[in-house]
Amino acid sequence: xxxxxxxxxxxxxxxxxxxxxxxxxxxxxxxxxxxxxxxxxxxxxxxxxxxxxxxxxxxxxxxxxxxxxxxxxxxxxxxxxxxxxxxxxxxxxxxxxxxxxxxxxxxxxxxxxxxxxxxxxxxxxxxxxxxxxxxxxxxxxxxxxxxxxxxxxxxxxxxxxxxxxxxxxxxxxxxxxxxxxxxxxxxxxxxxxxxxxxxxxxxxxxxxxxxxxxxxxxxxxxxxxxxxxxxxxxxxxxxxxxxxxxxxxxxxxxxxxxxxxxxxxxxxxxxxxxxxxxxxxxxxxxxxxxxxxxxxxxxxxxxxxxxxxxxxxxxxxxxxxxxxxxxxxxxxxxxxxxxxxxxxxxxxxxxxxxxxxxxxxxxxxx
Length: 366
Description:
Layout: H1 5-12, H2 16-25, E1 42-48, H3 52-62, H4 64-71, E2 76-80, H5 95-105, E3 113-117, H6 123-129, H7 135-138, E4 144-148, H8 149-152, E5 155-161, E6 167-173, E7 181-192, E8 196-198, H9 200-207, H10 229-243, E9 247-259, E10 267-269, E11 273-277, H11 280-291, H12 299-306, E12 317-321, H13 324-327, H14 337-340
Parallel strand pairs: 1-12, 2-3, 2-7, 3-4, 7-9
Antiparallel strand pairs: 1-11, 5-6, 7-8, 9-10, 9-11
Helix pairs in contact: 3-5, 9-10, 10-12
């Protein structure tokens, strides 16, 4: 259900929704030791080669049976690229990665296919600059269209935490929540200036919140995630919980990754890989291994694994194709990495201990 502007304002005061969100998260099926139970292993394709488009196509063919199972009953496909920049190609999904996805879909799904993004800037500029605008003509049989989610303006809302740990609503693009759509995330391997690394989950979680369309009164719900290092990781988890039931396929193009000052101004790393899985958490876990990043450092992904949104335990992930060891290289992290890791430490900015106001014989319940 999409909401009107009035409905959005009404939600701003509905703190009770956060409680229900937390309950719904549940860390499904926990053992007595708190470890998530799974049946079998999540499968992740890891392909190494000298052609970006072919790498992506081969990665999807490697997990063809799993993709077909999710695609079978969907009315259309949504491909969500990453346009954190609309001018720097290294920071944005290369159109050849999209061609690789469309090559796979062509004999298996007759369309329509919607390529949809809520860029940090003007999405249509990104479509033009990165040569997406020709896709509709080139892929006429697949009924490809381009959509700027900010201009489309349809959304659902979720509550997240602000800098004061109060509830604030965020507008998420309705199209990526449409149960009739098979959602494909087309992400990259990149370091990040706040949360260590950005792969498929980050692309969906921060690419789904909307901002004002060009010419409208300015607002930007993406900024609501930059409210404190702990809140950022938690808010990303809360958003992933909302989006995950409709996630179809994660595709990570690592033909040319980004290290250093990511996600928009880093330097290239010729990893020449493609990663694909119907389990976004597992795909990102393998991506971190390829980048040589400690998985305990990436809070939002660790939380997603703990909450049962996917498999984060590498021992329970089946990697098909190249071995991780054969393609792994240690990416240089962002210069602010020590500050980024402060989410792992003690909470020192909290309020004074409320318990100190109690008398020694008073009881604390709950």
